[in-house]
Specification:
Blueprint: H1 2-25, H2 32-54, H3 60-76, H4 83-89, H5 92-98, H6 104-126
Helix pairs in contact: 1-2, 2-3, 2-6, 3-6
């Protein structure tokens, strides 16, 4: 069962990446609210799935809090404007991971994304999918 759970969260992690990128790079295919906020919501959901992948036996509530706090730390580091990190943020992989500018609405999106992730995890772990 543990291997099945890890594989499932790995697949969810991999699936959330292109979905999140699609909301940014193809906004015309999504409603405005999803194209604006969907990437941030899926960023947090992706991070939740990744942390669940690493810690499959930990309580969902603890992982949800950990995921949200990690998202907040990443968002708050965007207030740091040293030249080297600003340059680093403008490279493709680090721009996606670290973000560019602090936006308060992102924190709300991260909360929604963590709730989405834990909801999916709860439903899957209580159903036939992971048993």
């Amino acid at each position: 069962m543990r291997t099945k759970k890890i594989l499932l969260y790995f697949l969810l992690f991999l699936l959330s990446i292109p979905l999140g990128l699609a909301t940014r790079y193809f906004p015309d295919y999504f409603p405005d609210v999803i194209s604006i906020y969907g990437g941030d919501v899926l960023y947090a959901t992706c991070l939740f799935f990744f942390i669940r992948l690493l810690f499959p036996a930990t309580e969902l509530a603890k992982l949800t809090i950990l995921s949200f706090l990690a998202c907040l730390v990443i968002e708050l580091q965007q207030l740091y404007k040293a030249g080297w990190i600003v340059h680093l943020r403008h490279t493709f992989p680090f721009g996606l991971i670290l973000g560019y500018d602090f936006v308060l609405s992102d924190c709300i999106c991260y909360a929604v994304g963590c709730i989405l992730g834990v909801s999916i995890a709860y439903l899957m772990e209580r159903s036939w999918v992971v048993r």
